[in-house]
Structures are given as structure tokens and as C-alpha cells.
Amino acid sequence: MGGCLARSSFTVNKQTTDNDCVRTQPIIFSVVDAELMLKDAEVGTYLLYKDYETERIYLSIRVSNRIRHHRILEVENLFYLDKQPYPYLDSIIFYHRKHKLRGIKLKQRAQFSARVVKAFTVRVTEQNGNYLAPPSAFGHVSWHGSTDSLMTSSSATS
């Protein structure tokens, strides 16, 4: 269990669990992936992310029978959600854990699985023209502390 830095008091609370910590920077994700990730989640599960295509910040929340997406605007170092200003992104999360946002309180941050992250990464790299080669394409690779000493099976024989 780690501590969580609270912006309001600037103290570290050792009693705070990792689930209570708030991600202050949105992750890079997409609206479609947020829908897929939250479709089977509990009511009140949320995800704060920046859409990789539009670069807009969203707070997506699982409500009773659907996923609701709230766009967050950043204007002059303030973040706006439903015309309400907040000084930080995490202050939006802290506030709506205690106060309802259109009838629902935020309960828990969505948990990422390795499968979800890999699927997103593969799709994005394919769309932007990059190719994510499988590890077997690199042959045997040995790492020795830095990239300067990267040795592959083909370079080790020469």
C-alpha cells in the first residue's frame, strides 16, 4: 500500500490505499475503449482519459444501464465540468466522490488489464502507420544496463 499526496493539504497520508489515490493526469485512451472497459463495471466506476484522436479530456462513468461521457474543458489553467470550474483534474474526482454528478457518485477508478492495454496499443500503432513487431522478430536480445550495450544474436557473432 502506498501513500497518496493530497493537493489540498500537501501531506502524505499513509492510511490511504492505492485505490484511493487519484491519477492527476489523464491517460491516453479512446471513447470506444472506455465504453468497452466500463460496460461490465459496477455503477459508479469511472475513467479519466484524454482521447488520443481528438485530444479532449473525458470523465466516463458507468451508470445504471449505460456509460456517460463528460467532456472536461481546460481554459486558463482551470478545468471545467458542466460549467463548474476546478483548479485541478483530481479535484473533480475528489469532489464527485462525495457529491453526485448528475445523480451518481464516483466510487472506483476502472482497473486496466494487460489485455486491454495491449489491444489499444496494437490498434493505435496500426492506425498511425507503425508496426508493433512481435518479440520473436528481434531474435535473442540481451540487455546490459543501457541501450549502448544492446547485443543481439546477430551482432554477438561479429
What does this structure look like?
The protein has 158 residues and is an alpha+beta fold. It has one domain: SH2 domain (SHC Adaptor Protein), CATH 3.30.505.10. 23% of the residues lie in helices and 31% in strands. The protein is built from four helices and eleven strands. Strands 3, 4, 5, 6, 7, 8 and 9 form a seven-stranded mixed β-sheet that branches. The longest helix is centred in the last third of the chain and has 14 residues. The relative contact order is 0.12. The C terminus is likely disordered. InterPro entries: SH2_dom_sf.
Layout of strands and helices, then pairs:
Layout (H helix, E strand, L loop, with lengths): L3 E2 L6 E2 L13 E3 L1 H8 L6 E7 L5 E6 L4 E9 L2 E4 L2 E3 L2 H10 L9 E2 L4 H14 L13 E4 L1 E7 H4 L2
Parallel strand pairs: 3-4, 4-9
Antiparallel strand pairs: 1-2, 4-5, 5-6, 6-7, 7-8, 10-11
